[in-house]
Amino acid sequence: MRSSSNTPYLERLDHLRFYAAALVVTFHFFRRHVEDLKPNNPLLSMIEEGNTGIGLFMVISGFIFTVISHNKEIDYWKFLRNRFIRIYPLFLFAVFLSLLISTYNEGRNYGFIELLGWIFPFRASTVSYSTYFIQLWTIWVEFQFYLIFPFLKQFYERYGLRYLLGWIALLIVLRGMVFLVTGSVRFIAYETIFGRLDQFLVGMLAGLAYARRPDGFGHPLQLLGASAAVLAAVHWFNHQGGHANMDGAFWIWWTTAEGLAWGWFVLAYLGFRHRLPGRMESWIAQLGAMSFSIYVMHNLVLAAVEKSVGVLPLHSDRIVAALLSAFLVALPATVALAWATYALIEKPFLAMRSSYLKSPCPPGPRPAP
Predict the structure, then answer these.
(1) Per the domain annotation, does 186 fall within a domain?
(2) 255 C-beta neighbours (distance < 10 Å), count
(3) Is the C-alpha dihedral spanning 239, 245, 248, 250 positive or negative?
(4) pLDDT in tens, 260-315
(5) What one-character DSSP code corresponds to residue 346?
């Protein structure tokens, strides 16, 4: 994001943020109007399993922090202050609105205790009742990443790549044990740090690769291969029952595989040498700058669109009609509201951030792989 004082601006990283947000918005609108599908078209599987945009967000987080802090030291408390300023103003806005809707429109009469449960970066007991902001569970996981990232960086620098790889292996083993004992590990893998940390760690590995060789994945075949890997992985996932399969053993390793595919895509997209035509690069980046607002506000917008418009009769095929309505109505409406929350809530606070990086680390032997 351009307003950060800690790193040169990577315009295409904002592209990726917008793609991730758009996937989630389209997925949630589409699933309101079309039942479970197992399509033969991998592109349609991508819409059907657009929740994979969350995985892309997690990889991007690990990637950007690693690139920013490469060969530098982090001031832990300044780092957390910046992360708090980055997400909590809009997050608290959404939480207050959600709890007030639940209290005054749905008769649940929430109070201060429920508010505390939402503010701290752990899962609130009432999140499943938050019809319009249930997606905020990912913000808690993200903040848990923030709490541990400086330590992950410090220990990687001390022990080398094997430290990050060891964490990924440990998480896979733990999920396997949970599955063996309980018969299901879907919620642990999908909604908690014990599944999503794999993707953050993959993002860190991708960030290290990019920091060392920014053009290492610049060949067009890299982007083609990475795109094919993402599509093939999500298509396979969809045909195994996807996010709705609560008992699949594939949840033991799926978030790792999903993260690896997206990590490759991030490197290939950033390294791709050809620019999009006209001003498309900057236009998409501007949308990506609002991706957090798009993500936070989208379910409220989709509910309003469903009540007022629904699926437009743009095609005789209900699937095509739902897709067209998602792209032509739901996504633009979400972007419009996100523009307002970004300008009024996010942007003023973003200007309050400061550098959390200390002087570069002294040169020394590179950690063993």
Answers:
(1) yes
(2) 27
(3) positive
(4) 999 999 999 999 988 888 899 999 999 999 999 999 999 999 999 999 999 999 99
(5) I
Q: Looking at the DSSP assignment, which residues form a beta bridge with residue 74?
A: 357
Buried residues in 176-208 as b, exposed as e (16+ CB within 10 A) = eebbeeeebbbebbbbbbbbbbbbbbbbbbbbb
For residue 360, is pLDDT > 90? no
At residue 357, φ and ψ (nearest 5 deg) are: -95, 135
Residue 191 lies in a domain: yes
**Nearest alpha carbon to residue 339 among 292, 307, 303:** 292
Entry pTM: 0.93
Residue 29, domain member (yes or no): yes
**Residue at 293: amino acid letter:** S
Closest alpha carbon to 95 in 146, 139, 50: 139
pLDDT in tens, 164-178: 999 999 999 999 999
pLDDT bin (cut points 50, 70, 90) of residue 37 is confident
What tens digit of pLDDT does each residue of 194-216 get?
A: 999 999 999 999 999 999 998 88
Q: Quickly tell me which residue has 């044990």 as its tokens.
A: 177
Residue 175 CA to residue 166 CA, distance in Å, equals 14
SS3 245: coil
367 part of a folded domain: no
Compute the distance between CA of residue 123 and CA of residue 136 in angstroms, rounded to an integer.
9
Contact present, 353 and 82 (Cβ < 8 Å): yes
Distance between CA 205 and CA 211 in Å, rounded? 10
Instruction: Render pLDDT for 50-105 as a digit per residue (tens, 0 to 9).
Output: 999 999 999 999 999 999 999 999 999 999 999 999 999 999 999 999 999 999 99
The 8-class DSSP code of residue 329 comes to I
Q: Please determine, for residue 230, whether its predicted confidence score (pLDDT) is greater than 60.
A: yes
Residue 353 three-state SS: coil
Residue 7: DSSP 8-state: S
DSSP 328: I
State the helix-helix crossing angle for 291-308 and 11-33, rounded to 10 degrees.
Answer: 20
| Cα angle 58, 246, 35; round to 5 | 90
Range of the domain at 195: 11-275+285-356
Give the whole-angstrom CA distance, residue 109 versus residue 281: 46
